[in-house]
Specification:
It is built from 11 helices and 16 strands. With 341 residues, it is α/β, with parallel strands linked by helices. The strands form 2 sheets. Strands 1-8-2-3-7-4-6-5-9-10-11 form an 11-stranded mixed sheet, with helices on both faces. The protein has a 5-stranded parallel sheet with strand order 14-13-15-12-16, with helices on one face. It is globular. The chain has 2 domains: 214 residues, DHBP synthase; 99 residues, 3-Layer(aba) Sandwich (Rossmann fold), CATH 3.40.50.11030. The protein binds adenosine monophosphate and magnesium ion. The site of magnesium ion has 4 residues, from loops.
């Protein structure tokens, strides 16, 4: 199959919208990462998304809408808890996914058989326009091959999906750069299942207490049940072995330089670059968590284009917007952290 990369013109949005309505799949830009979309009401279209990504069928997809009324119109939710309404009012359209009891309009392929469904109203104008042109909600995971870093540019999508999907809409680089924050309000106690562009602190500011699922910051134990199916899968593992270093700038640089070799690289902050004697892949300024989130996946993909065998990465903070960066990097590193005293 030829994969066409299209600019987001009016005609192309109409073309892709119609293709999606009729059961085809297509990659779209969103403000978080590129998504691989299918008509969320069509089980066999949704299946094609799992196949193109090589995604395990038990990992449910997020349903994307372009108007709050679509939740009721397409019977996406059995009920909308009051806390979901408050979150939607504050953060939609935007990078927040809310999990609510599933409605009868959602096929089992989307929710992987769960009785809940993940819903998001993206803020990206092109995503909204395509959903509106498709006249149906779109189920979309990130448009990468399963296990690879999520795509934050159309070229990333082309790299993973060339020949597997008919269309990619190129909307430039994604603004947030990590996947949406996922919070469940399906039960009494809201739980943060995945940190993203909307921070834990922001959620708490709107709905009060929000628990953090253990697997957000910690390695899941053998036999532990995942509160969100995606948590149990290995994510974003680079080809090289990635080890995170928790330390000050000076100690990080000394540690890495003392292990200098042509096999070694550094996934570091911008400020580290001048001092490093190995190949450096900076992903943002030390205290600019938003920028780190924005550049992280691109840096991981750049590392994958090399033959480096061992990467020493900076261990991010866990507060505010840094939690999303930490959550992705700690998985990429297989939870391997060295703390320098
Ligand atoms: P992705 O589409 O690749 O951004 O991944 C979506 C994430 O949301 C995955 O980690 C899923 O496991 C999670 N998710 C989707 N639907 C649900 C649900 N109903 N309950 C819990 N987690 C969900
Ligand atoms: Mg994904």
């Amino acid at each position: 199959m030829e994969t066409k990369v299209l600019l987001p013109t009016k005609d192309n949005i109409k073309l892709v919208g119609e293709a999606l309505r009729n059961g085809n799949i297509a990659a779209l830009p969103t403000e978080t990462v590129y998504g691989l979309a299918a008509n969320a009401l069509n089980g066999s279209a949704v299946k094609a998304v799992f196949e193109a990504k090589g995604r395990p069928m038990d990992n449910p997809l997020i349903v994307h809408i372009s108007d709050f009324e679509q939740i009721e119109k397409f019977k996406l939710a059995r009920k909308i808890p009051e806390k979901a309404l408050r979150l939607a009012e504050k953060f939609w359209p935007g990078p927040l996914t809310v999990i609510v009891p599933k409605g009868e309009g959602v096929p089992d392929e989307v929710s992987a058989g769960l009785d809940t469904v993940a819903i998001r109203f993206p803020s990206h104008i092109v995503t909204q326009a395509v959903i509106t042109a498709a006249e149906c909600p779109l189920a979309a995971p990130s448009a990468n091959t399963s296990g690879r870093p999520s795509p934050t540019a159309a070229l990333h999508v082309l790299h993973d999906m060339n020949g597997k999907i008919p269309y990619i809409i190129d909307g430039g680089c994604c603004e947030v750069g990590v996947e949406s924050t996922v919070v469940t309000v399906a039960k009494e106690q809201p739980v943060l299942l995945r940190p993203g562009g909307i921070t834990l602190e922001q959620l708490i500011g709107v709905i009060g207490e929000v628990a953090v699922a253990d697997a957000v910051l910690n390695k899941m134990q053998e036999g532990q049940k995942a509160e969100s199916p995606g948590m149990k899968y290995k994510h974003y593992a680079p080809k090289a072995n990635l080890v995170l270093i928790k330390s000050t700038l000076d100690k990080y640089i000394d540690y890495v330089n003392s292990r200098k070799s042509s096999d070694v690289g550094a996934l570091c902050y911008d400020e580290d670059v001048p001092g490093l004697e190995v190949a450096a892949f900076p992903f943002g300024s030390r205290n600019d968590y938003v920028q780190q989130a924005n550049r992280l996946f691109d840096s991981l993909r750049k590392i994958d284009e090399t033959d480096l065998k061992l990467i020493y990465g900076r261990c991010p903070d866990t507060n505010g917007a840094a939690m999303a960066v930490y959550n992705r990097l700690i998985r990429a590193a297989g939870f391997e952290v060295i703390e320098l005293a």
